[in-house]
Design a protein that fits this description.
This protein is of the alpha/beta class. The protein has 15 helices and 11 strands. Bound molecules: nicotinamide-adenine-dinucleotide and magnesium ion.
C-alpha cells in the first residue's frame, strides 16, 4: 500500500487524485492534504479520511479544522507547505504536488531533499526552478514523475527506448477556449468565455493559460527538463480533439503516439501506479472517434505567449521567473476582472523587456524577483 500526501487536494487535480484513492482503497492510503481557498471542501476531506497532517492557509482555517479533528497535526502558510512535503522524512511516502503556481517549488525541493518520490502536476515549479530541481535530483534517490497528459504520453512512449534515438517530441494543444477566434476578436472577450474550455475541465488559472497558449510554452519547458532534451527537439501542434496527447518521432522515421480520452484521471493513475498498469476509472476511448482527427501548425502571431515562453527558456536564468511571475499576476488580475484578456500578454512582454537577467538565480533570488514583480504589477491596477 502506497502512502500519499497531496498538496492542493481541493483543486481539480487534487480532487481527481482523491477519486483514484477512493476507487483503490487497498493500494493507497492518504496521510495528509493541503488546501488553501476552499475551507468547506478541505474540512469535508479531513472528516472523510483519517489524516495525520493538514497544511492550511492561515490560523482561521486551522482553528476550524482543530474543532473537527483535535488530533491532526496542522501546518500553516507557505512554510507549512514545505514542512508538509517533508512530513515524517524517514517514512516511504509519495508526494503529489497539485498546487497551482510557483508556490510549489520549495515543497518539491524539500521532498527531493529527503529522497521522496514526487508526482508533479505543478508545472510552474519546473518553469521557474527547473535548474534547481535537476541539481537536487542528482543528489537524491527521488523519482520525479509527471502528471500532465502530454508528458505522461511521452513518458509512456519513451519506455524502453534509447533517448539518443529521439528526433522530436511533438506535444498536442487543444487551442484553448478562443481557438476559433481571430486575434482581432480577442480585444473584449469575457472572463466567463475564457473559462469555458472546449475539452478539459480544469482549475481557472490553467484554463486561462490554455487560452493564451502560455500553457503549451510551459509544457515545452517542462518536457525539456523531464526528458533531458534540447528545446529545439520539442514542438507543439494544434489538435482540437485532444485524443492524441503527444507524439515521439524517432531517428529511423517511426512516429509513435499515445491515445486516450481526455481525462486527467489516466495520467494521474499512471503516475500513481507506475511501473504497473492497472484498471483505471478514467473514461475509455470510443475507437470510432479516431476517424476524424485534425492537426494544424500553431501560428505564433496568433499566440504570442507561446513565443514568450520559448524565448524566456532560451534566455534562461531569472527570465523564466519573470515569465511566470508576470503571467501568474496578470492571470489573477484578469480573473479579478481588473484587466482585459490581451493585457495578459502585454504585461508579460513588458516585464521580460525590462528585466536584467541573472544567469543562475538562487532560490532566494527567484523568490525575491517573483515577489517584486507580483507586488509591483498588482499595485498598478
Ligand atoms: P486548481 O486551481 O484547481 O487547484 C489548485 C490547488 O492549489 C487548490 O487546492 C488550491 O487550494 C491550492 N492553492 C492555490 N494557491 C495556493 C497557495 N498560494 N498556497 C497554497 N495552496 C494554494 O488547479 P489545478 O487545475 O488542479 O492545477 C494544479 C496544477 O496542475 C497546475 O500547475 C496546473 O497547471 C497543473 N495541471 C492541471 C491540469 C488539470 O486538468 N486541472 C492538467 C495538467 C496540469
Ligand atoms: Mg497538459
Amino acid at each position: 500500500m502506497k502512502k500519499i500526501l497531496i498538496l492542493g487536494a481541493t483543486g481539480s487535480i487534487g480532487r481527481q487524485t482523491l477519486e483514484i484513492i477512493d476507487a483503490n482503497p487497498l493500494d493507497f492510503k492518504l496521510i495528509g492534504v493541503s488546501g488553501f481557498n476552499n475551507t468547506s471542501l478541505l474540512i469535508e476531506i479531513i472528516r472523510k479520511y483519517e489524516l495525520s497532517i493538514a497544511s492550511v492557509k492561515d490560523s482561521i482555517q486551522a482553528e476550524k479544522i482543530k474543532k473537527i479533528n483535535p488530533n491532526i497535526k496542522i501546518l500553516i502558510g507557505e512554510q507549512g507547505l514545505i514542512d508538509f512535503a517533508g512530513f515524517n522524512p524517514e517514512e516511504d511516502i509519495t508526494l503529489i504536488n497539485a498546487l497551482v503556481g510557483m508556490v510549489g517549488l520549495k515543497p518539491t525541493l524539500r521532498a527531493i531533499g529527503i529522497n521522496r518520490n514526487v508526482l508533479l502536476a505543478n508545472k510552474e515549479t519546473l518553469v521557474v526552478g527547473g535548474h534547481l530541481i535537476k541539481e537536487a535530483l542528482k543528489k537524491s534517490s527521488s523519482n520525479l514523475y509527471p502528471i500532465d497528459s502530454e508528458h505522461s504520453a511521452i513518458w509512456q512512449l519513451l519506455n524502453g527506448e534509447n533517448k539518443s534515438s529521439v528526433k522530436r517530441l511533438i506535444i498536442t494543444a487543444s487551442g484553448g477556449s478562443f481557438r476559433d477566434k481571430a486575434r482581432t476578436e480577442l480585444e473584449d472577450v469575457s472572463l466567463e468565455s475564457a473559462l469555458n474550455h472546449p475539452n478539459w475541465s480544469m482549475g481557472s488559472k490553467i484554463t486561462i493559460d490554455s487560452a493564451t497558449m502560455i500553457n503549451k510554452g510551459f509544457e515545452i519547458i517542462e518536457a525539456v527538463y523531464l526528458f533531458d532534451l534540447g528545446i529545439d527537439k520539442v514542438e507543439a501542434i494544434l489538435h482540437q480533439e485532444s485524443l492524441i496527447h503527444s507524439f515521439v518521432e524517432f531517428e529511423d522515421g517511426s512516429i509513435t503516439a499515445q491515445i486516450a480520452e481526455h481525462d486527467m484521471r489516466l495520467p494521474i493513475h499512471y503516475a500513481m501506479y507506475y511501473p504497473e498498469r492497472k484498471e483505471s476509472i478514467a473514461n475509455k476511448l470510443d475507437f470510432m472517434k479516431l476517424n476524424n482527427l485534425h492537426f494544424k501548425k500553431i501560428d505564433f502571431n496568433r499566440y504570442p505567449c507561446l513565443s514568450y515562453a520559448i524565448e524566456a527558456y532560451k534566455i534562461g536564468g531569472s527570465m523564466r521567473t519573470v515569465l511566470n511571475a508576470a503571467n501568474e499576476i496578470a492571470v489573477r488580475l484578469f480573473i479579478e476582472k481588473k484587466i482585459k484578456f490581451l493585457d495578459i500578454e502585454r504585461i508579460i512582454k513588458e516585464e521580460m523587456e525590462r528585466h536584467q537577467v541573472i544567469t543562475f538565480p538562487s532560490l532566494e533570488e527567484i523568490y525575491t524577483i517573483d515577489s517584486e514583480i507580483k507586488t509591483r504589477i498588482y499595485n498598478q491596477y
